[in-house]
Amino acid sequence: MVWVRSEYAGELAVVLAWLSALLPWNVTYSTLSGVGSVLFVRFPFFQVRYVAGISISKGLAVSTPLGALAYQEGQSIAAAYTAWAVGAAVVGAAVALSVLLYRYEERVEATVDAVRVMGALLSLAGVVLTAATWLLWTRGFPGLPIPIGVVLLYLFGGTLLVARRD
């Protein structure tokens, strides 16, 4: 059974790279002492934090992986944010490859099997963001991190790695 026809594998690789960049890899609902209920939605390149019970202008904050890492510097949870930053870099490499594949498909495909490289990058991002999720869960951060996008990264990467290439 073939999931992807070989003539559409390059296009699928581009679409999956962009989906990976736009979907949240982690959602966490926490109750923090002194703050209240907090919802974290982490995308590869930014995080949205919403604190319930206060005005939206004060309760909503957006930060990058490096900004969130700087905020957590010196805490045990900083390792999770470091892994997130590495995962963001891997997803960024996949997006960069997708732009090259979109613009210069024939030249890129003549050099490397871009579909397999994209599959490897998305799978690697899944591994790194799995580590980030594990670190968030085990380093004392309250709440249960739900790795929504991590599961999709494995699915996307695996689909590209097993795509038949003629």
Care to describe what's here?
By secondary structure, the chain is of the alpha+beta class. About 60% of the residues lie in helices and about 15% in strands. The protein has helices at about 10-20, 55-60, 65-70, 80-105, 105-110, 115-140, 150-160, and strands at about 25-30, 35-40, 45-50, 60-65. A hairpin with a 3-residue loop joins strand 1 (about 25-30) and strand 2. The radius of gyration is 18 Å and the shape is elongated. The mean pLDDT is about 90.
List its traits.
166 residues; 59% helix; 7 helices
Structural class: alpha+beta
How helix-rich are the residues, as a percent range? 55-70%
Q: Say how many strands there are.
A: 4
Round the mean pLDDT to the nearest integer and report it: 90
Morphology call: elongated
Q: Give a quick account of the main beta sheet: strands, pairing sense, barrel closure.
A: 4 strands, antiparallel
The number of helical segments is: 7
Radius of gyration: 18 Å
Q: What fraction of residues sit in β-strands?
A: 5-15%
Give the low-confidence spans: none
| Beginning-to-end CA distance, first to last residue | 15 Å
Give the strand order of the largest sheet, numbering strands 1, 2, ... along the chain.
Answer: 1-2-3-4
Order of helices and strands: HEEEHEHHHHH
